[in-house]
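Mods, move this if it's the wrong board.
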Amino acid sequence: MKIVKKKLIISLLFVIVTVLGACNNSSNDEVDADNENTNNLINTEELVEGEWIDTKGEHQENAGMYHTQSIDYSSSNEYALFANSYVSYYNAEEFIKTIRYSGEVKDIPHNLESVEDADNVILSFSEQWVDEIELIKE
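Not the wrong board. Structure tokens:
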């Protein structure tokens, strides 16, 4: 009788550990998928195609370019940019300046310069980056 009880307890523990392990893996996958979607500050569903913002803050037409909608920004945070891009800094709707972040792929990510008066940014970039561009607040 004792042997049967021991086998039953061991089998029950094995089932519990297996079920808990499976639950843990699936919840981690969900968290990782959510983080991928929420860490990128760029809403790729709302990109403006065929236009970019130049170094004077003026909108220029160019079929091979995209720009984002306004993205909240704070100079007290650090941001990593995973693409070559022009970043236009604004205080509300007032243009401050545009900085070009470019280089070889090995130079990515770029760390955004801190611009004190800016509270939002707009990124302009080539269509080659449309599926890969990310802006992450660190």
